[in-house]
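Lab meeting minutes (informal)
Scribe: AK
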Amino acid sequence: MKKSLIIALALVAGASLNTADAAKKNKKVVKTETAAPQPIELKTSSDSVSYAAGMMLTNGLIPYLVQQQHVDTAYMADFVRGLQEAVKADQNPQMKAYIAGMQIADQLNSRMVPSMVEEFTSSPDTILTSVLFRGFTDALANDSTHFKYKDAEAYFKEKEAADKKIKEERLFGPNREAGQKFLAENAKKDSVITTASGLQYKVLVKGEGEVPQMTDKVQVHYEGRLIDGTVFDSSRKHGDKPTEFLPSQVIKGWTEALTMMPVGSKWQLFIPYQLAYGERNAGQIKPYSALIFDVELIGIDKPKTEEPAQPAAAEKKPAKKTGKKK
């Protein structure tokens, strides 16, 4: 019974490839009339417990259909009709294949295709869903009129990478150039030290304590800013206690700085995007953003080492009697 319910849910969730576009163009929906179900008599205890079990399995189903599958409850008769057809088709290979097709259609329509359309938005090419679905079904039918599968895969990946590069350059190229210009000017200042990786830092307070190792947990206060001065994070926003973490758990620019800073130091870090969040979008931080951090190293928490086990004390053997028997 549970299996039948799951299949029925998939049947309702699936969207027909041919009717998806038509539904958008024509909002008028014809309500299907269904015959009233035949009365049922509960003659035995098994009848009653089975009927009750069926009712129990509907617990939470209506909210699921409305919230997750976007089913209009005015059409529950159609849902029931689909459920009944799916139950009858449980042992029918042809119907199982049909239902599986509708399940895949739902996955394509709800997740995979919208994600791909979004990926190509603002790029030189546009994903046309009707053509995409034709390519999908032709591949399943082994139709190689336009592409063999391997050629289609290689062509798509090449265009995807090229379009992504053009899109990112158009959207975030100015941000990258602004960061590079800022760091180039900043590096000319006498108080700024530039490392081989491109990290820049300025010592605000010189500490005299121990320098953390990669395995040490550090305690820091910090404030992070964009190069235009916008503060995007601060440890004091989260309380007065310093933030704790391992140097290996943060961006590369922080890792490098923390393993050079003595405890008690306060440094200002100027981090190129390659040592920060790179091409990723992180909230207020756009891709290719150079960042500025004021970092104060409060203390270090060394990892605990297990003490060597002490050897067990040797058991004392009873002394031998040396006296002669009388």
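Next up, CB showed the second protein from the same session:
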Amino acid sequence: MELNKLIASDLLKIKAVFFRPEQPFVWASGIKSPVYCDNRLTLTAPEVRNDVENGLVTLIRENYPDVQVLMGTSTAGIAHAAICGHIMGLPMGYVRSGAKDHGRQNQIEGRLEPGQKVVVVEDLISTAGSCIEVVNVLREAGAEVLGIVSIFTYGMQKGLDRLAAAKVVNHSLTNFDCIAEVAAEQGYIKPEDIQRLIAFRNNPSDESWISTGADK
């Protein structure tokens, strides 16, 4: 099985990504969503965790062979950066969402020397704001950020535009379109729901995909 479909199947199996187009979830922003995503569940599913970490290592080795340090995003990327770092024999650290207000007031945890080549490890990317903030902190510290690896990306236009503007590349194990396809193949959703899901992904603030399903 292709890696992106294997990871998609894994995430669906443990309900780390869960589609519910008939009963949308409501995000904190108020947006109604047909998908729920919690990749932290991969950490408590050893077989899936093994697929994810080996997959991330493959992405790193194929796309960033010169990497010297892995840096996880806080908090969801930390465990994945640590496990991948262990597998690859590389140092790792993580970037806090803000500098500590005590001690050495670090925002970057772990040793990082100016000029070192870094890959950022993230669990999921939607609008890409948090991971780009991490990239900027690392660049300000003198690191050469080679790029990002992540478990899952929505492929939202806002996220793609932000990554392009920041001149940083992300490589994900799987993506929204792939997971929607696998979900239909395996009976988690109806095949006709795929277009509704893609409509949501393309414009999350437009709720017309909900009424489209109700008409059927």
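CB comment: The chain has a mean pLDDT of 93.
No objections, moving on.
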